[in-house]
Each structure stands twice: as C-alpha cells, then as structure tokens.
Amino acid sequence: MRIEILHGDITARKVDAIVNAANSSLLGGGGVDGAIHRAAGGELLEACRELRRTQLQDGLPVGSAVATPAFRLPARWVIHTVGPNRHAGQTDPALLASCFQESLTVAAGLGAQSVAFPAISAGIYGWDARQVAQVAFDAVGSFSSSGRAGDSPLEVVEFVLFSEDTTAVFRTVLESSP
Ligand code: AR6
Fold it and tell me: pLDDT for 68-79, tens place per residue?
C-alpha cells in the first residue's frame, strides 16, 4: 500500500472512495462535508437519510465509518466517518485512529483499490494537523500490516489537503515516519 500526499479539493479526486469528515447526524455540515454534499448532489443526502432510517437511528458513532454511493462525484463511493471533536472534550487519539482504520476496513470491503482521506478533525473539530497526520500514517501502517489488508486490493491511500500549510505538515510528518 502506497501513501500519496496531494494539495487540492478531495471532491475532484477520481479514486474509488473518498472519505468524508462528517458528523454523527450524517445530514451534512460545513467544511469538507459541505463540499462533498454540494458536489455529489441531493441524492447523497437522500442516501444518508436512508441509512439513518434503516441502520443508524442514533446516528453514526465517533470513530465509525459507513459507505454510500458517490452519485455525481468522480469517485465511486463516499465513506462517511465521524472524527472526535476536541471542542466537545473528545481528545483521545484512539478515536481518531479508529476513523482511519474503520474507513480503510470499509474501503477494503468494497473492493476499493484507491481511497482518499481529508485531514479528519483538523478543521472545525479543532485537532492539530500534525497530530492528525501522525495518527493517520500510524493507522495506515497498522492496517497494512494486519490481516485485514491481506485480501484487499487496496493499493493507494491518498491524503488530499485543502491548504498549503496542512499539505506541508503532512509531507513533513510522512518523511519523518519510520
Ligand atoms: N477537500 C479537502 N479538504 C477539505 C475540503 C475539500 N474540499 N474542504 C475542507 N477541507 P472539516 P472536521 C479540509 O472542518 O474538523 C463539518 O461541519 C479542512 O481545511 O471539514 O472533521 C462536519 O459536518 C480541514 O483541514 O472537518 C462536522 O460537523 C479538513 O478538511 C465537522 O465539520 C477537515 O476540516 C467536522 O469537522
């Protein structure tokens, strides 16, 4: 599995799956969540409402992930995950690690070869980008060395960062990772 760091808009990525930094309601919001819903079209919100009705009446828990089709996006699927919100006292890095691990597990289950992540929790939810990068790369490393990656066709894990600063942070952390 190869990690790539890109500066840009995740909604433009023609990968198998893009990951959405959603909230538990799954009904949209600001940041990358808003951008994904706008670009995917109203069918995405409908699919999320259907998930809430049928499987997730109490919402998607922090650290969990669930997939929908990507509708008008170039990607095939959107994997929605809910990062921990520092402003709500959710400061346990294990919750953030779980977002990356669960999203990779869902991507592998879909048969995805490529998946793109944003900097989950590094915006409205208030986490430091450096810590998000560290947790993300550790999660990819432990996923690829675990049995879960064995049968999956997952080859490329992209991190698509919206600002130059965050892109530089992710590059620096990746270079200093073992
Ligand atoms: N492509 C890639 N990255 C983006 C894009 C984009 N189009 N737009 C923003 N980012 P945030 P969170 C970056 O706030 O911190 C929503 O309201 C952004 O610059 O989107 O997990 C949800 O509904 C930042 O680096 O997600 C939740 O309520 C990163 O994506 C809440 O925000 C994450 O920022 C989730 O907060």
Answer: 999 999 999 999
Can 33 be counted among the known catalytic residues?
yes
The per-residue DSSP string of 118-158 comes to: --TTSSTT---HHHHHHHHHHHHHHHHHSHHHHT----EEE
Residue among 9, 16, 33, 58 flagged as catalytic: 33
**Nearest ligand 1 atom to alpha carbon 122:** 15
Q: What ipTM was reported for this prediction? A: 0.99
Q: Three-state SS for 28?
A: coil
Could you give the CA distance from residue 120 to residue 89 in angstroms, rounded to a whole number?
16
d(CA 124, CA 87): 9
HSE of 10, CA atoms in CB hemisphere, 13 A: 36
**Residues with C-beta less than 6 Å from any ligand 1 atom:** 9-11, 21-23, 29-33, 35, 83, 118-125, 160, 162-163, 166
pLDDT in tens, 27-67: 999 999 999 999 999 999 999 999 999 999 999 999 999 99
Element (H, E) at 42: helix 42-54
Order across the sheet with 114-117: list the strands.
2-7, 156-161, 114-117, 17-22, 77-82, 65-69
- Residues 18, 174 contacting (CB under 8 angstroms): no
Protein residue whose Cα sits closest to atom 27 of ligand 1: 23
